[in-house]
Amino acid sequence: QVQLVESGGDLVQPGGSLRLSCVASGFRFGYSGIGWFRQAPGKEREGVSCINNSGGRTEYADSEKGRFTISRDKVKNTVYLQMNSLKPEDKDVYYCAADLQPPFCGGEWNYSTWYNYWGRGTPVTVSS
């Protein structure tokens, strides 16, 4: 059974940091791309970042470049999203998703339709 379980979301002050985790199971983690998306109520999911199977290719949405860093741990079957310099507008539910068809983290990485499995999300709130 495929599972993606996010954690790490919390309430943080502006300028603060969080590290989100996505633990994967039930599929070949080493042959998958993993994406992070965000979604506000009533809005479309937006791509935040992705990482390919080897970890050698990463992509970021423009608003997250320089503030967020994605990484993966093959031993722990986990992908991390380090979020720094958080802003109130970063408030959303963050989801991780698995892409099981290459190319991983390709040119259309931010299209949610490419991803086969999704986690249930973890909420991030940025407020003073």
Note down, in words, how this protein is organized.
The protein is mostly beta strands. The protein contains no helices and 11 strands. The chain has strands at residues 3-7, 11-12, 18-25, 33-39, 46-51, 58-60, 68-73, 78-83, 92-99, 117-118, 122-126. The strands form 2 sheets. Strands 2, 4, 5, 6, 9, 10 and 11 form a 7-stranded mixed sheet that branches. Strand 5 and strand 6 form a beta hairpin. The model has no long low-confidence stretch (mean pLDDT 96).
Given the helix and strand composition, which structural class is it? mainly beta
Percent range for β-strand residues: over 45%
Helix content: under 10%
Q: Indicate the radius of gyration in whole angstroms.
A: 13 Å
Alpha plus pi helix count: 0
Secondary-structure element series = EEEEEEEEEEE
Report the principal-axis shape. Answer: globular
Number of strands: 11
Distance between the termini: 40 Å
* Unreliable spans: none
Largest sheet: 7 strands, mixed
Let me know the average pLDDT.
Answer: 96
Summarize the structure.
The chain has 128 residues and is mainly β.
